[in-house]
Amino acid sequence: MDFVNVIVDISHEKVDRVFQYRIPEHLKSRLQAGMQVRIPFGRGNRLTKGYVVGFSERPDYPPEKIKELAGIVEGSVKAESQLIALAAWMRERYGSTMNQALKTVLPVKQKTRQKQSRKLVRSISVLEGGQLLEEYRRKKYQAKARLLEALLQNEELDYEEAVKSLKLSAAVIKGFEDKGIVRVESRTLYRNPFADHFTKKEKEVLLNREQAEAVEGIWADHQSGIRKTSLLHGVTGSGKTEVYMELIARVIREGKQAILLIPEIALTFQTVRRFYERFGDRVSVMHSRLSGGERYDQFMRAQNGEIDVMIGPRSALFTPFSKIGMIIIDEEHEGSYKSETVPRYHAVDAARFRARMCGASVVLGSATPSVDSYDRACSGRYGLYRLTGRYGDAKLPGVAVVDLRTELKEGNRSIFSRKLRAAMEDRLRRGQQTMLFLNRRGLSGFVSCRSCGTAIRCPHCDVALSLHNDGRLRCHYCGYETGMPPLCPSCGSRYISGFRAGTQQIEREVQKLFPQARVLRMDYDTTRTKESYEQILTAFGRGEADILVGTQMIVKGHDFPNVTLVGILAADISLYASDYRSSERTFQLLTQAVGRAGRGRQAGEAVIQTYVPEHYSIRTAARQDYEGFYRQEILYRRMMGYPPAAFMLGIYLSGSEEEFLEKQAERLGNAIQRLCTEGLVVIGPAVAALSRKKDMYRMVIYLKHMKETVLLHVKNQIERILEQEAVWNKIYIQFDYNPLNAY
Ligand code: ADP
Ligand code: ZN
Ligand code: ZN
After folding, report:
1. Of the candidates 35, 251, 611, 681, which lies 20 to 30 Å from 640 by C-alpha distance?
2. Nearest 5°: phi and psi at 336?
3. How far is CA 236 from the centre of its chain?
4. CA dihedral defined by 287, 326, 581, 652, rounded to 10 degrees?
5. Please, are residues 257 and 308 in contact by the beta-carbon 8 Å criterion?
6. Position in ligand 1 atom list of the atom nearest CA 207
7. Average pLDDT of the chain?
8. What is the pTM of this model?
9. Ligand having the closest approach to the CA of 455
10. How far is the CA of 366 from the centre of ligand 3 (A)?
């Protein structure tokens, strides 16, 4: 190969083609796909970094125009060509530049300095050493005597530690080395942040009938070479994790590797420990709390074959394993599997693509599968396995739905219904724990006027400001802050106050009602620091509080056997989010929240407070009836032509000048209409749900089509349109394939 194709590492929309370079003779044997290289670029031949994406025998341009590669960026991570292919696929499907896609799959580019461990190893016998020691003592060579004595006690010493504790100079050690008394051995230490905490345990797990059926079914397909995706549908506690572990064990026995994706929030100490106890240090965990160096090390350990299993959130999918046998995605319905930055990929789809490349199987697990996945399973495109009971004899909780309209009519203005209040009192008396869950997805504790209904909003972001304990109003996007106005800025009324359902507010109300109760609060504000999230949950788990108040964070992860009551304070708020998945999300959140009650031996109870008790997502969640919910929801999706009944593409436009943006959005909308694609539905352009963020105006266009391939083709045509005129460079345009959240 004489020529190399390189993608230039500049994050600019238009620098998105492949450039060809001649390979200098001395680099021919070393160059590999995925390497970072230095290339002369542009008119000034400025040295720029790029990625090798391929090679070619013959030049695609006149040979005299092809420049020569300047060199390899040393220390850059050699990525699997699989990952680069994955990037190319992501770019095609989700609409991004190749650079953006590569940056996503090759997250660690620069080698951080490795921690070196150096050892002093004695290389003479104890007898020889003993004689030498006497000689040193006689001659009063104090430092030498100290070192030798230590070496006679321990054959190996840690270099750094010995220097410090024995007060040695480098010369003393050098002298020993020269005389052949010690060897200095150094090796690179890859940080394994968990290794010290756990030990492997041999434990026999006997799978129950349903678990065994799932394992054998998935494994039989896998072994007979059918590489498909299977959905494991089972409530929390039904034993899905045991199924994953058994499958992973088999994959390892086969000499292959496994990736297990778990939402970051569910990646608790307990979960990690289960895997370490089963697989020992052949497992590694990736999460956002690791330092850059630690992350890099985990990837290196994977690449070097030191581990077989990688556990982590979305980005663990890009672990540079070369022989993946299985990719498992737990809680596959979770929104966090979809990236909200370009390329806006979905981990389930990306995992399926990666699995196809390396002949791996994909297993998805959830208590509340996404409507998309369940639809595929029902139509036979995915395998479907069910775990119907909780493991052991843990019971599902009893659920009561309370109509808040009735409460108000009957004179109860408190945020707690009478039923919930009585239940809380009862738990306090019995020394059992309560979790109060405030469903406030997308809503903050905003301030509004009770006379005219106006909410106070951020002047830059057009989102409601939220009221903090110190009385200040803050914007959670841009950080803008202001004092609480004494009168409504809109109508001048004095009746202006916080929305009575922030977590702080609830905490205060609980304290007022039950002064003796010990209350913990968990929300965005109390979990800012890295450890605070775990600390709060651990404290609650140890029984240091009676009541835990929190947002959706509290409904996931940890098991609390002493929690016998879950109160859901505003069950319907998430129904008002302005996108087609709001019912699905509400059902999922409520089901999870209800599932928190009664994980131990005592029977649990859940109280759902709502203004719309008749809504199907609330009714079915109260019954823990996934099937019932799915049947209703899929009808709605089909009727409205939303995914999975159709495919959807969001086109997000943003720019600093409102009028110009509007004009361009209009032009783009018209251009798309002119493509005359049969069956294409164009919605908008419209002002985005968040109409302004950090002083950038935002607009959206949505496209729908029954055929995925047609929609992807339309996306490519739009990309071509955008390339043709420089005017499009003045606004920022992103694509979002099957969007999860409103832009
Ligand atoms: P899920 O992942 O569906 O929430 P888990 O796999 O965590 O469920 O199982 C719930 C609990 O039941 C765990 O403590 C687990 O160890 C236990 N368990 C599940 N299956 C078995 C089994 N076959 N034998 C023994 N314990 C099991
Ligand atoms: Zn007002
Ligand atoms: Zn703002």
Report:
1. 611
2. -70, -10
3. 19
4. 70
5. yes
6. 23
7. 84
8. 0.76
9. 2
10. 35
CA 735, chain centre distance (Å): 20
Residues 488/452, Cβ–Cβ less than 8 Å: yes
What type of residue is 124?
I
Joined tokens for residue 177: 């080395």
| 314-318: Cβ within 8 A, 24+ apart | 314/261, 314/339, 314/347, 315/107, 315/286, 316/259, 316/260, 316/261, 316/286, 317/259, 317/261, 317/347, 317/350, 317/351, 317/354, 318/83, 318/86, 318/104, 318/105, 318/106, 318/107
Report the percent of the chain where pLDDT is more than 70: 87
Q: Which two tokens stand for residue 287?
A: 């999460």
* b/e code 695-733 from CB counts within 10 Å (16+ = b): ebbbbbbbbbbeeeebbbebbeebeebbeeeeebeebbb
Q: Dump the DSSP string for 263-329.
A: -GGG--HHHHHHHHHHHGGGEEE--TTS-HHHHHHHHHHHHTTS-SEEEESGGGGG---SSEEEEEE
Predicted pLDDT of residue 435: 92
Q: Is the dihedral of CA 409, 415, 417, 418 positive or negative?
A: negative
Cα(27)–Cα(23) distance, rounded to whole angstroms? 7
- Give mean pLDDT, residues 225-242: 90
Ligand 1, closest atom to CA 274? 16
Please give the Cα distance from 718 to 710 (Å, whole number).
Answer: 12
Residues with CB under 6 A from ligand 1: 205-208, 211, 234, 236-242, 391
Minimum CA distance residue for ligand 1 atom 26: 205
In terms of phi and psi (left: phi > 0; alpha: psi -120 to 50; beta: otherwise), the region of 502 is: beta
d(CA 403, CA 359): 52
Could you report the per-residue pLDDT of 282-321, keeping only the tens digit for each? 999 887 777 777 788 888 888 888 899 999 999 999 998 9
Q: Which ligand is nearest to the CA of 367?
A: 1
Are 162 and 154 in contact, with CB atoms under 8 Å apart? no
Using CA atoms, how far apart are residues 579 and 585, in angstroms rounded to an integer? 10
CA of 447 to the centre of ligand 2 (A): 11
E strands along 369-452, which residues? 383-387, 398-403, 433-437, 447-449
3-state secondary structure of 656: coil
Asked whether the beta carbons of 361 and 355 are under 8 A apart, the reply is yes
Q: Which amino acid is at 650?
A: G
User: Please, which pLDDT band fits residue 107 given cuts at 50, 70 and 90?
Assistant: low
Structure tokens at 93: 């499907």
Does residue 181 contact residue 132 with C-beta atoms inside 8 Å?
yes
- Calpha distance 324→255 (Å, rounded): 9
Among 231, 232, 238, 242, the mutation site with the greatest number of ligand 1 atoms within 8 A of its Cβ is: 242
Instruction: Give the ligand 1 atom nearest the CA of 243.
Output: 6
Q: Is the dihedral of CA 570, 571, 575, 581 positive or negative?
A: positive
Mean pLDDT of the 656-682 span: 93
Question: Nearest 10 degrees: CA dihedral of 9, 14, 16, 21?
Answer: -70
Residue nearest (by alpha carbon) to ligand 1 atom 9: 239
Proximal ligand: closest to the CA of 475:
3
Residue with the bigger pLDDT between 429 and 118: it is 429
C-alpha distance from residue 118 to each of 156, 158, 160, 312 (Å): 10, 6, 7, 31
Examine the pLDDT at 22 and tell me if it is beyond 90: yes
Reading the block at residue 58, the tokens are 């013959």
Ligand 1 closest atom vs CA 235: 3
Is residue 664's pLDDT more than 90? yes
Beta strand pairing call for 36-41 and 71-72: antiparallel
**pLDDT for res 555:** 73
Alpha-carbon span 193 to 269, nearest angstrom: 12
d(CA 505, CA 558): 24
Torsion 315-321-327-330 (CA) sign? negative
